[in-house]
Design goal:
306 residues, alpha/beta, Rossmann fold, nine-stranded mixed β-sheet, 10 helices, 18% strand, binds adenosine-5'-triphosphate
Length: 306
């Protein structure tokens, strides 16, 4: 296994984070989006890479959907062959809610199937990391697909990941898979910042009261229980509706319990990174003269044609 110091960094990116879980459907993409937007609201420069080539969710959750299927060469994702390509040849990310975003979903229609072999998924994400003109970022967050094989293995081996945020729900079935993801990150010396317990209780839309919805695991899983709890996020149907419309809850319902939980989670992530990497503040990259103006904010855009 490659030593941590030999793993690659992305130029001008302060902290590279991944959001993952062994389990599907537990809220990784929701956490990634709201973490990114909440950090941006707190004044950080943030990028978000959708690492799910099979089922990219970020375009829909941030309201930059591409419904029409791509044809022929349109569907080819232009990737850099080498690490060092000039900025003008790089892909421009979209800016949404203050976050620079990139997704394979920008190149394919949302109902279009793509079938990269699992073993090239990690390389695809790595090449996207290099091919995008991120500019200067405090945080670059990768929303991982579920699982503990690819692309996670390639990314962990080749990129210097500064932290992993684990997402789970409270049932045993999710916690077992999340414990596997924890073991995977620990096995390759990727620091796990903590765990987010998502869908932890249900907020009734009528009376606003909280109820338990999923049976709480009866088994202790001490490896997870010993991790710092970054957030406990209730299940709120309004969060799904807003997410489906492209408005993350930290924007559309900023004082709701779900949004407040995401905001606190982002504060804890920032504080944990700062505590674990005191060097990063000192080494903060200097912003160039064009600073953040490389991409245009695409507020209100609901659909992309290309
Ligand atoms: N706290 C929450 N309250 C209500 N709905 C939620 C919450 N968190 C996530 N959801 C909804 O659950 C569904 C699955 O969430 P999401 O896509 O974020 O999961 P995922 O782990 O990324 O899934 P996948 O493994 O397929 O990538 C989405 O419809 C999302 O809006
Ligand atoms: Mg997802």
């Amino acid at each position: 296994m490659q030593g941590r110091t030999q793993r690659a960094r992305i130029d001008q990116v302060g902290t590279l984070l991944v959001v993952g879980s062994g389990k599907g459907g537990v809220g990784k993409s929701t956490v990634s989006v709201n973490l990114a937007v909440a950090l941006a609201k707190q004044g950080a420069k943030v990028g978000l890479l959708d690492g799910d080539a099979y089922g990219p969710s970020i375009p829909m959750m941030l309201g930059v959907r591409k419904r029409r299927a791509s044809k022929g060469t349109e569907a080819i994702v232009p990737l850099a062959e080498k690490k060092d390509i000039p900025a003008e040849q790089k892909l421009k990310p979209l800016l949404r809610y203050g976050v620079k975003i990139m997704s394979v979903g920008f190149f394919i229609g949302e109902e279009q199937a793509v079938a990269p072999m699992p073993d090239v998924l990690g390389m695809l994400i790595r090449q996207l990391l290099y091919s995008v003109d991120w500019g200067v970022l405090d945080y670059l967050i990768i929303d991982l697909p579920p699982g503990t094989s690819e692309p996670q293995a390639t990314l962990c081996r080749e990129m210097q990941l500064d932290g992993a945020v684990l997402v789970t729900t409270l049932q045993d079935i999710a916690r077992i898979d999340t414990a596997k993801a924890l073991a995977m990150f620990q096995g390759v010396q990727v620091p796990v910042l903590g765990v987010v317990q998502n869908m932890d209780g249900f907020i009734c839309p009528h009376c606003g009261e909280r109820a338990e919805i999923f049976p709480r695991s009866q088994e202790s899983r001490s490896v997870l229980d010993e991790l710092p709890l970054l957030g406990s996020v209730p299940l709120d149907p309004a969060a799904v509706m807003n997410g489906d419309k492209g408005h993350p809850v930290v924007i559309s319902m900023p004082v709701s319990p779900v949004a407040l939980a995401f905001t606190r989670m982002a504060e804890r992530v920032a504080a944990t990174v700062k505590a674990q990497r005191p060097d990063v503040e000192a080494e903060k990259p200097v912003v160039g003269k064009d600073g953040d103006d490389t991409v245009k904010e695409e507020m209100g855009t609901d659909e992309r044609e290309d």
